[in-house]
Design brief:
alpha+beta, seven-stranded mixed β-barrel, 10 strands, 19% strand
Length: 365
């Protein structure tokens, strides 16, 4: 079993504070962690809600004014709301749901704040939402076409990640109308998506989610650490910290290994939002510039990871040509695939892969 220690920390973009853990405390936490027993080969299957890719048409009704006033996620209350829905696999209906604000940058700057949904088990028992607990709703920041495209672009990156590893968040798209009960009117209708909750992800992986900060290079499973880092490099994302658990989750597998899981990609070069910035410490002029920020692993792990990305290339590109991919503007698709082309040229050029990824890793001895 690996021991979480105080590892090298970097917090990019909307930084989180690092809560230091002593090695002794971390070791105790690792030893006493209750990890679920493996459930068998089908344990990584997502819940029924996420098995369909058909978008759900829904209307979310709440008092938007009160929700906008909840600027501190730590103290924000759960606000009452309703979700009226319809879809091929959902029939139709209205379910009660509670909303709570979340996030950092988007919470302070967006017209409709990012929220977490809380479904009551009994109320959704016979609906498509059965089994969901407190998933995130990833919604538009502003009621503009460009910002809706950002949501769809980020949604696609979750789909790409899912092709590479089951240790990633499942997502499902909604065509969502936002109704303000305080003003009795619909504010906007835009695409959004529901993201699988961390606890649900960990459970289907027969793993335990851990909140312990301070993970360093030696604490993570080498292959999955490299996969995580190379994926972040592929999409041009530096807005994360494994040690600080900023836009990163850690799960502990039954064998004691820790796997990192990426999420929140709107500051990535692949999405290229107009509001995305790079941490000044990185000395990068644009989020479109790639910089490898993954932890160092044994060098034999990288060829295996590159092989996986190459094997999945056709399937990844196909995501941008299927019905969900076609929701993106053609120019956005072309720009994204050209961005990916540059990544594939790097990993398939031994000299470039060595200089840009393998030798650029964090935590060299």
């Amino acid at each position: 079993m690996r021991r979480i220690i105080i590892g090298l920390s970097f917090s990019i973009g909307a930084a989180t504070s690092l809560i230091a853990q002593t090695p002794a405390k971390a070791e105790k936490s690792a030893k006493t962690a209750k990890v679920p027993k493996p459930k068998g080969p089908d344990s990584a299957e997502v819940s029924k809600f996420f098995r369909s890719e058909t978008p759900i048409v829904a209307t979310l009704t709440t008092n938007v004014g009160r929700l906008r006033g909840d600027k501190n996620p730590a103290t924000a209350p759960w606000r009452p709301a309703t979700l009226a829905y319809t879809g091929p696999d959902t029939a139709h209906g209205v379910v009660p749901v509670r909303l709570k604000t979340r996030g950092i940058w988007r919470l302070k700057n967006c017209q409709f704040p990012p929220v977490r949904l809380n479904f009551t088990g009994e109320a959704v028992k016979h609906t498509a939402f059965h089994g969901l607990d407190q998933p995130k709703l990833v919604n538009h920041c502003r009621d503009e076409d460009a910002y809706e495209q950002y949501v769809l672009q980020e949604f696609q990156l979750y789909r790409v990640y899912r092709l590479l590893t089951p240790a990633s968040h499942a997502v499902r798209l909604l065509k969502l109308s936002y109704a303000d009960s305080g003003k009795d009117k619909v504010m906007a209708t835009r695409y959004a998506f529901i993201e699988e909750a961390p606890g649900e992800l960990a459970a289907r992986m027969s793993a335990k989610q851990t909140k312990l900060k301070g993970a360093g290079p030696d604490d993570l499973d080498p292959f999955n650490s490299a996969l995580f880092g190379v994926f972040q490099y592929m999409i041009g994302n530096t807005d994360f910290s494994v040690s600080g658990l900023h836009n990163v989750e850690l799960i502990q597998m039954a064998n004691g290994d820790y796997w990192p899981i990426a999420y929140d990609f709107d500051f990535s070069g692949a999405v290229n939002t107009r509001y995305a910035t790079v941490d000044p410490q990185l000395h990068m002029s644009s989020v479109r510039n790639r910089m490898y920020r993954g932890y160092c692993v044994p060098k034999e792990s990288y060829p295996k990871v590159f092989e996986l990305f190459n094997a999945k290339k056709d399937s990844i590109y196909a995501l941008y040509k299927d019905p969900l991919g076609k929701l993106l503007r053609p120019d956005v698709v072309d720009e994204t695939l050209k961005y990916f082309d540059d990544f594939y040229r790097t990993i398939n050029n031994p000299r470039s892969a060595k200089s840009e990824i393998i030798d650029a890793c964090i935590g060299k001895r």
